[in-house]
Amino acid sequence: MANIQTLDPATEIVELLRAEGNPLAEVIAGLPYYGPCTCTASCNNLLTALPGSSGSSVIQLERDGVDIIWLSLDRSRTTITDIEVLDGRDLGPSAQ
Predict the structure, then answer these.
(1) Helices then strands (H, E): number in the chain?
(2) 47: closest CA among 30, 63, 26, 71?
(3) Which of 7, 8, 50, 71 sits 20 to 30 Å CA-CA off 18?
(4) Counting beta carbons within 10 angstroms of the beta carbon of residue 34, is it exposed (0 to 12), middle (13 to 18) or buried (19 or more)?
(5) pLDDT digits (tens, 9 = 90+) for 17-74
């Protein structure tokens, strides 16, 4: 398994979802990107659907027992509406 420093968030999400046998791993590459959430200056969410699309379901992905990414799902739980990065990694200019 690759070190967290060498994985981009999408690759890491796919790896972690596949390890759990979650079929959402296969939709990651096709998710649209609407940019970072602008609700607050410190928000760490990357939008993959229009704001307000999320339901109440969240998938918590962890590495070594620590949550590193939360995936919010739509109301039908069939697609990811936003990705919250919890581990403090710098997403760089590609997140803008």
Answers:
(1) 1, 5
(2) 71
(3) 50
(4) middle
(5) 999 999 999 999 999 999 888 888 888 889 999 988 888 999 999 988 999 999 999 9
- Tell me the two tokens of residue 72: 């919010």
Q: How far apart are the C-alpha atoms of 39 and 66, rounded to whole Å?
A: 25
Long-range contacts of the stretch 70-75 (C-beta < 8 A, 24+): 71/13, 71/24, 72/45, 73/24, 74/49
Residues 80-89 have pLDDT tens digits of 999 998 877 6
Q: Residue 77, Cβ neighbours under 10 Å: how many? A: 12
Q: Are 32 and 80 in contact (CB under 8 A)?
A: no
Domain boundaries, the chain: 4-87
For the chain, where are the alpha helices, taking DSSP H only? 9-19
